[in-house]
Amino acid sequence: MNILFICSRNIWRSPTAEAIYKGKHGLEVRSAGTEPSAKIKVNRKLLEWADLIFAMEKRHKQRLLEKFPEDMIGKTIVVLDIPDEYRFMDEELVESIQTSVSPYLDSI
């Protein structure tokens, strides 16, 4: 399964999620950001590749739907409600991501 994690600038939250799940059996994981200043910017190719998309905040989902309406048809986007108040691999961030994402991956 191909999983894409989305945040604003692809610096702390989505790269942390990618690091947590990279190398897990049966998962291919990538991350991207919605802002022009993102380290890796979300694009059509990434969205086509993704089977499941996790957005850190509701506004990230809204941006995807506004910017890529056709590419989002039939895509599952889960909003994690994780605010932008953590650094890369922050213990609390890791725990929050795992708690939010696990229910979706347990059924795989």
Write up this protein:
This protein is α/β, with parallel strands linked by helices. It has a single domain, classed as Response regulator (Rossmann fold), CATH 3.40.50.2300. Helices cover 37% and strands 19% of the residues. The chain is built from 4 helices and 4 strands; from the N terminus they run E-H-E-H-E-H-E-H. It has helices at residues 13-21, 44-49, 58-67, 91-105; strands at residues 2-7, 28-33, 52-55, 76-79. It has a 4-stranded parallel sheet with strand order 2-1-3-4. Helix 1 (13-21) links the parallel strand 1 and strand 2 (28-33). Helix 1 (13-21) crosses helix 4 (91-105). It is globular. The chain starts with a strand and ends with a helix. The model has no long low-confidence stretch (mean pLDDT 95).
Could you name the CATH homologous superfamily? Answer: Response regulator
- Looking at the structure, the CATH topology is Rossmann fold
Radius of gyration computed on alpha carbons: 13 Å
Q: What's the overall geometry?
A: globular
- Uncertain regions spanning at least 5 consecutive residues: none
